[in-house]
Amino acid sequence: MSEWDVEGVELDAYFKRIGYDGPREATLPVLTALHRAHTGTIPFENLDILLGRPIEVDVPALQEKLVAKRRGGYCFEHNMLFSAVLATLGFEVRRLLGRVRMGHDEYWSRTHMVLVVTVDGREWLADTGFGGNGLREPIPFAEAESEQDGRKLSLVRHGDPQWILRVGRPAGWFDLYGFDEFPQHPIDVVVGNHYTSTSPRSPFTKRFVVERQQDGTCRTLAGRTLILTAPDGTVTEHPVPLDDIGTVLSTDYGIELSAEGLAAVRAAAERVGR
């Protein structure tokens, strides 16, 4: 029995949430279709932190939040749920931790989670939890370049961490995150999630970010700014009036908040300025 408890996954409800009605075999086409459906439907967001709610990463809590309540989450939430779905379907899954880089070289804490999935003896990098800048579908777990929806991606080996995922930008390759292949355990995810959701050093405790990728364009709501990143990396920014934040959350990301929750989000947006 695996130490990763995948009990609590309600496949029918999950498939309905992401709009998937295809086969349920452990094949590459199924993995690819599920990955695309998940990333195209469930947004990346950290709103509950600003609402004073704890972030839980056990499967029943994730099923309730991301599926039943139709909310989003960040990497630990997305990839813990997705890995449980995959394991239930019979996929072989490795959970790994990494460091967000976003163009920087310094060492940040291990606050990102990725998955390596084996299908017919071949490994694939899967990651449903890096928001609009991340993968839309799995890529070969090997040094190689890929293209998804007009975006160029590259997975390379590079010192410590051993692997770096990069995206093509007008100025060249841009590092998204790095990770190694050291085995991880559930407690490692719990610790990383606790730091990310509670530490005053974590960027997620200072401001909110909501993202989704649609037709290759990353749509990021960061405070009072809507940032659109085109497939070629070109960025445009649009101010969002405080009174319109609720509408943007609803129409662009499918997130409905209570009046109290929306007031808290608006206050956070006003406090940080963007």
Automatic annotation (TrEMBL):
Name of the protein in question: N-hydroxyarylamine O-acetyltransferase
PANTHER family: ARYLAMINE N-ACETYLTRANSFERASE 4-RELATED, N-HYDROXYARYLAMINE O-ACETYLTRANSFERASE
Single Gene Ontology MF annotation: acetyltransferase activity
Family as reported in the entry's similarity comment: Belongs to the arylamine N-acetyltransferase family.
Membrane-crossing segments per the record: none
Keyword Transferase: yes
Pfam families: Acetyltransf_2
UniProt keyword Transferase present: yes
Alphabetic keyword roster: Transferase
